[in-house]
Amino acid sequence: MGFLYRSTRNENETATASEAILKGLAEEGGLFVPDEIPELDVSFEELAAMDYKGVAYEVMSRMLTDFTEDELMYCINGAYDKKFDTELIAPVKYHHGAYILELFHGKTIAFKDMALSILPYLMTTAAKKNNIDKEIVILTATSGDTGKAALAGFADVPGTRIAVFYPKNGVSPIQEKQMVTEKGANTFVAGITGNFDDAQTGVKKMFSDKTLAEYLDEKGFQFSSANSINIGRLVPQMVYYVYAYTRLVAAGTVKPGDEINVVVPTGNFGNILAAYYASEMGLPVKKFICASNDNKVLYDFFATGEYDRNREFILTTSPSMDILISSNLERLIYRIAGNDAEKNSELMKSLAETGKYEITDEMKKNLYKFYGNFATTEEVASTIHNVYAEDGYVLDTHTAVAVNVYDKYKADTEDDTPTIIASTASPYKFARSVVEALVDTGNESAKLSTDSLDDFALVDELEKLSAVKIPQAVEEIRTAPVMHETVCDKEEMESVVKNFLGI
Ligand SMILES: *Cc1c(COP(=O)(O)O)cnc(C)c1O
Q1: Residue bearing the CA closest to ligand 1, atom 8
Q2: Would you say residue 474 has pLDDT above 70?
């Protein structure tokens, strides 16, 4: 089948799905994008009768056209199994006037598991299909959640190694503990003295370094990426939007074809882009509501048409969204420019050189389905507090950004279309910020008592408050020994990777 992926920066660079997954990134920093998204030619009623794996097959087979049915089913069955703590994989729950799509029931209790539990299967299958005899080295920059999810996925997978870089002072203590206690023999984890953008820029630099690629090739290695710049991350993320919609169809909440809104707490723009791709496949979405924290570069972009990263980087209570360069926005820019690699390259060059770019009025018109807003750190805390007061449901800090922005959207528009909110992490992952928000915010002595507790004591506190059992992922790391102690500058990233590979 002729469904090709193409670089956002060079219309002549094409790849099959399996090649695009293996490469991760196109040449010269481009991202692989599908030429066009095929229509999902299965009815919503039929999909509503399928389980998660069934929906996953229907959606993914349309996008990964060079995988056989057997290959894809092997990947899906390997990924969406008992690693998830519910057979539903991604349950939908109604709270605060919206359908909360819980994407945190996988091994590392963040939504990254949805794609990273299948990516290693897709990657090793793609390697086999393409007769790759090199060891694949996954390079990953993480704002906190990708790191552990990727480590968990690739740990001890034959033919692969994985190196993860995280901002040393920019992740939650639980997130850090999850990563540095990773036992897989093929894994490497380093904190960098910089922020997520520094880590991501360093990783992208290694990817586009041709001399380094040749050297690796000589030594029997090749790089790939587990970040959402890899199309193998985005395609599995399209699945749960279709899945959630068809659960609403099954429940009779929406009629097949009725529109919904989706709200996505956004950082690197991968999750919301997957929703957009799902809509191009036929999911009826009225508005894509893009929720940002204090690092509101996307809110400003949707408001003005100018993307400007020249601003202070703010550390918030939703660290996985502390990002000023949203890599996947490039894929949307390419699309709204009419699949124009030249125009996109020009804008991305401007971003690299001046830290900003401005889209044309014509392109801006194509963004009419997007709504952006943001929630401050105080608003996040009060949202967690208030939703808990309503019915005892505990939001994590990232999901609270989304819920707060949804409230603002409704106030702005009075739109009452049924709405799905992507819930991207378990509150246990951010126990300190969540417990502080739950205890009476005006109560000084309650605040003092949380200050004196360590993060695992707060986890116990949260169990009492939420009546949700402490996830296995948290219990596991409580007493686990630290396996990774490297801290380096961003300039040292290449040398620590070589060191890890023994070359
Ligand atoms: C990664 C992450 C996000 C942001 O997702 P993007 O795809 O990067 O926009 C939001 N919330 C949590 C908990 C995350 O781990």
Answers
A1: 268
A2: yes
